[in-house]
Amino acid sequence: MNEDILILGAGESGVGAAKLALSLGYTPFVSDAGSGKSAFLAELDADGIEYEVGGHNPSIWPMVKTVVKSPGIPEDSSVVEELRSGGAEVISEIEFASRNYEGKVIAITGANGKTTTTSLIYQLLKNAGIKVSCVGNIGTSWAREISTSSEPSDVVVVETSSFQLDGTVSFKPDVAVLLNIAPDHLDRYGYSLENYAKSKWRITVNQGPKDYLVYNYDDEVIKELLKSTGTKAQLMPVSANKALMPGEFGSGLNPENKEEFLIYTHNKQTFTMTIQELALQGKHNLFNSMAAGVTGRILELRNEGIRESLANFEGIEHRLEYVADVNQIRFINDSKATNVNSVWYAMECIDRPIIWIVGGIDKGNDYRDIIPLVKEKVKHMICLGKDNKKLIKTFSDYVDSVHIAESAEEAVQIGYDLGIPKDTVLLSPACASFDLFGSYEERGNKFKKAVKGL
Fold first, then answer.
1. How much is the pTM?
2. What one-character-per-residue DSSP string does 257-279 give?
3. What is the pLDDT of residues 418-441, one digit of tens each?
């Protein structure tokens, strides 16, 4: 093929795209405005892939027909706009990967619950003996998986963010799972929930009548998008509040026993499970489990296999992760909670007094929705971030005390000193991590290390 292809960004997504391009016979060139991580650059060196760091040199642009953009680069960036005006097609890594994958595609998106639901679906399929891969926002890029796997999977489960969906053109999942739409990353979308919602809706725009959209029936934004924009996919509504009546498709509570939920799809075999049997408890996890179960039934997995997988799932690191009890004070790592809605779910699950560690880079958050929960459940607030003015202004009147920490170690020590038996110290930041940490994983790991050092 020997055609130039430009990759913008030298992270996991960009390096994965470069590897796939090379395996397909393209001549990839990787360009990163930052310094690039040494591990990723070493991979490019090992594969003989040329790259530049510290800026984008436009000299190659006239020769490029295809550009694969990493999700961290906004659609309206000057580089992207200049490349498009020059006639290049600029796409996301998941669009590039999807054009080179022949198996079934299950894609999951939403403001909250993506990683948990993606992992649940992957576990269902894996336990059923299906050759399945799990990729995307959850860790390994889809492009890397295709290029490095010795044997292609029959099904891929893709966790997709709004940033990844922005650069899609023909991406068409066989099953799309839309969990919820709540304010997140609004700084990237002109502080407009409508713009953010349109990005999420791209998961279904190319679906046809043989495809499925599993969606949150309780989410008003999604219901409005269904009315205004619509989809050609077959609809599978899921509700953790509404009963599933005879003849209805999707998942809901058992009208005869609200302690059970039902799943009914076109396969016409009813699945029933008690809520108490689920490995993951809490209303939001009930919904995630129901959505995963519906996906399993669409793919005609056995009821007993679905039940076993949902009952034995072990959970996700950094998402409501139990760390330890120290002198009867519980420590919970919810570092992945980078928006207000995730914090709401976390607090809703906890039935003990909370010492809340919060803060980081605000993404246009509106904290008003969680004020009632904070008033009801939070005793003390510990701000872990460089700019805490907005948090302090919003919540200082509703908690007993406010404290400032400049490291995870300091935050944990303050939480421990403030705590009494039966309290919970909850790291649930509502913000991105990049002011003090390299990632939410680093933030969570430092929190856990500090707890274990008490």
1. 0.80
2. EEEEEEEE-TT---EEEEGGG-S
3. 999 999 999 999 988 887 898 899
Check if the beta carbon of residue 205 is closer than 8 Å to that of residue 178: no
User: Which CATH number characterizes residue 240's domain?
Assistant: 3.40.1190.10
**For 138-190, how does the pLDDT look when each residue is reduced to its tens digit (9 = 90+)?**
889 999 999 999 889 999 999 998 889 988 999 999 999 999 987 555 555 55
Element (H, E) at 86: none
The residues facing 209 across adjacent strands are none
Residues 77 and 19 in one domain: yes
Residue 328 has pLDDT above 50, yes or no: yes
1 — pLDDT class (breaks 50, 70, 90): very low
Per the CB < 8 A criterion, the answer to whether 378 and 399 are in contact is yes
**Per-position b or e across 333-352, b if 16+ CB within 10 A of its CB:** bbbbbbbbbbbbbbbebbee
Q: The domain that contains 47 carries what CATH number?
A: 3.40.50.720
- The stretch 81-86 carries a mean pLDDT of 94
CA distance 402 to 404: 7
Provide the pLDDT for residue 241: 92
Q: Strand order of the sheet with strand 4-8? A: 50-53, 27-32, 4-8, 66-69, 89-92
SS3 state at 53: strand
How far is residue 133 CA from its own chain's centroid?
A: 16
Q: Are 154 and 130 in contact (CB under 8 A)?
A: yes
What is the rounded average pLDDT of the residues 82-92? 94
Of 226, 230, 294, 238, nearest in space to 266 by CA: 294
| Segments forming the whole domain that contains residue 441 | 321-452
Residue by residue, DSSP assigns 334-384 as: -TT--SHHHHHHHHHH--S-EEEEE-SB--S--GGGGHHHHHHHEEEEEEE
C-alpha distances out from residue 142 to 17, 92, 99, 138, 283, Å? 8, 11, 11, 10, 30
